[in-house]
Design goal:
The chain has about 600 residues and is α+β, with helices and mostly antiparallel strands. About 45% of the residues lie in helices and about 20% in strands. It folds into 4 domains: about 5-145, Rossmann fold (3-Layer(aba) Sandwich); about 165-320, no CATH class; about 330-405 and about 505-590, no CATH class; about 405-500.
Length: about 600
């Protein structure tokens, strides 16, 4: 009775045609061998444009396993070990599983009858070589891509929304979607949330005056429009054919808007190339060093600087736990304000009053001691507008007096000193790790070769010594990881500080503008250690402001404590809210 045979073919890409491993070539060889052996071909499984390093991602291979479990054939023919698998462990598991079903696996050129130990040896050698080859290719590719990334050249992946490749390793505006990109970033810069922007996109937007409201194409839809097909090879003729791709949904989602905004914070829209955050195969490079991500400031931002700064201010404020959206009636700049009478915190408070068809909302600051225990504190509610304006003027005037450039230079110098300390600590930890690894190897060797002839007591001591050596290595490796994380956090902190202090909206004249709120609030959080409201006389108050000072070790300490004579005090003013309907503190809303 003729054996039922299944054929499995795989090709990584259509480009492999020129190397003689095309689908028709494999199919012809496998069919010829099956015919010469008198077999009946009952199924052909063909994976195109699929890597051999992972069997789980190959659809046809999974169908082959399903059919094998149903005993639909007696033999599987594959052209070669590397066509079947590039992962030797998966190859052995595959062959072992089919053997339990009584199904034989044969590769082209193998004799049907062969001593199992020789068959195992030859397949093992070819499997290990196939895996080594793909590993070596991966390391060479990583080295080439890293070199290009360090030059600020884009290293592949999906093209960012709103731009197109310029042919020189970077991008230029896409006439079709660049206006939509600016619209999205502009709305985020105004403080709108991802979900709000997504809803507006799905409802349709108007980009030009007089134009119709329409839903702009999503990134996935743009990719589909540029290439609505997949290239495949006809198994019989060898011709390259176009297989239609699935049409993506044209609905925007908040995750997509989030990704676009993040690229304006630290990505291509800000002129920054970030590459190598995740390793596909190995954590170490070809020299055994831990792979480090590449971040390059190309100096070629793709979005106007004013929009970038606003988006960055909003995103950085969200990272600090500030709400993603703000209302003019509920926006408060001062987060570290305290009462000079009772010492309790002073929080923002919005009161609402109604007069006919109008609603008046008043922004105020009130002491928590007064709220929690009525009568415990005599500090009245203070007008938020005048209070915030006074603080901004005194703080930002001090920044300008100290020179923004000099302040940034001082910060960067402190950060560099701290980075050098961390890198030195990493170097020492790596030397210590190498020594501990030698001790660990010696302990394991002693445990392996001496345990047979050792007494119970000596054996226990050797085991304890080996455990201590392993724990010491683990501890040192954890220290190195922590130190490397510290360097990454330090770099991120330096970038955040620079973004904060160079924001064009960092001007007390813009204190009442909603889009400037995040920039000003973040600057105050960075510059101000504490603020205390004190009463000078009836209806007259002033604020003592404690600013941070940069120390040699890169830390921030209170200038108030280190240099008491340099107090920053606002001029006495009547911050007390008298409850009058002043235009500066009321927001009139017409009720329909």
């Amino acid at each position: 009775m003729s054996k039922r045979t299944a054929l499995y073919l795989r090709c990584s890409s259509v480009d492999q045609v020129k190397h003689g491993v095309s689908i028709p070539d494999q199919l012809a060889r496998l069919r010829a061998e099956a015919k010469s052996a008198g077999e009946v071909i009952v199924a052909e499984f063909i994976d195109q444009a699929r890597s051999g390093t992972s069997a789980a991602r190959r659809e046809e291979f999974q169908k082959l396993l399903t059919a094998a479990r149903r005993r639909e054939f007696d033999r599987v023919r594959v052209e070669s070990v590397d066509r079947g698998h590039r992962n030797d462990m998966e190859r052995r598991q595959f062959e072992a599983e089919l053997q339990t079903f009584g199904i034989q696996v044969l590769y082209v050129g193998e004799p049907e009858k062969q001593a199992p130990q020789y068959r195992k040896l030859q397949r093992g050698i070819r499997g290990v070589l196939a895996e080594w080859e793909v590993d070596e290719t991966s390391q060479r590719t990583y080295k080439r891509h890293r070199f290009r990334a360090q030059q600020g050249k884009w290293r592949g992946g999906n093209i960012p929304y709103g731009v197109l490749p310029d042919g020189q390793g970077w991008f230029m505006p896409d006439p079709e979607s660049y206006a939509v990109l600016l619209w999205i970033l502009g709305k985020r810069g105004e403080g709108l949330s991802y979900h709000t922007i997504t809803r507006m996109l799905n409802e349709g937007i108007v980009l030009e005056e007089g134009a119709k409201r329409q839903v702009p194409p999503t990134p996935g839809l743009l990719i589909y429009q540029r290439r609505p097909y997949l290239e495949r090879q006809d198994p019989e003729t060898g011709e390259v054919i176009h297989v239609p791709r699935r049409v993506p949904a044209g609905t925007w989602i908040a995750f997509t808007v989030n990704e676009i905004c993040q690229k304006a914070v630290d990505g291509v829209y800000a002129g920054v190339l970030c590459w190598g955050k995740h390793a596909n195969r190995f954590r170490e490079d070809a020299d055994g060093n831990l792979k480090q991500p590449v971040r390059v400031e190309t100096g070629k931002p793709l979005v106007p600087d004013a929009i970038l700064r606003r988006v960055q201010a909003v995103e950085l404020a969200v990272q600090d736990g500030t709400a993603a959206t703000i209302s003019p009636a509920n926006a408060y700049l001062l987060a570290s304000l305290r009462c000079g009478l009772c010492g309790e915190a002073i929080h923002g408070y919005t009161s609402t009053k109604y007069k006919g068809d109008k609603t008046y909302r008043y922004r105020k600051y009130r002491c928590a001691g007064r709220v929690n225990k009525p009568g415990a504190c005599q500090l009245p509610m203070l007008d938020a507008a005048e209070l915030e304006q006074a603080v901004l003027e005194v703080v930002l005037a001090d920044v300008q007096e100290r020179s923004q450039e000099a302040l940034l230079a001082e910060i960067n110098a402190a950060m560099e000193r701290r980075r050098a300390e961390l890198e030195k600590a990493i170097e020492c930890a790596e030397d210590r790790l190498a020594e501990r690894e030698r001790r660990r190897s010696a302990a394991m060797d002693a445990l392996t070769f001496q345990v047979k002839h050792a007494s119970e007591r000596v054996r226990a001591a050797l085991v304890e010594h080996a455990d201590d050596a392993l724990a010491a290595c683990d501890e040192t490796e954890a220290q190195i990881r922590t130190l490397r994380l510290g360097v990454a956090v330090l770099d991120e902190k330096a970038r955040t500080i620079e973004v904060t202090l160079t924001d064009p909206l960092l001007d007390p004249a813009h204190w009442s503008e909603p889009e400037a709120h995040f920039a000003l609030k973040r600057a105050l959080n960075f510059l101000v250690h504490a603020m205390t409201v004190r009463q000078e006389g009836p209806g007259a108050y002033y604020i003592e402001v404690e600013l941070y000072e940069i120390r040699e070790n890169g830390s921030f300490e209170s200038a108030w404590e280190s240099n008491p004579p340099t107090k920053f005090v606002t001029p006495p003013a009547g911050f007390e809210d008298q409850g009058s309907h002043r235009a500066t503190s009321a927001l009139a809303v017409i009720v329909a």
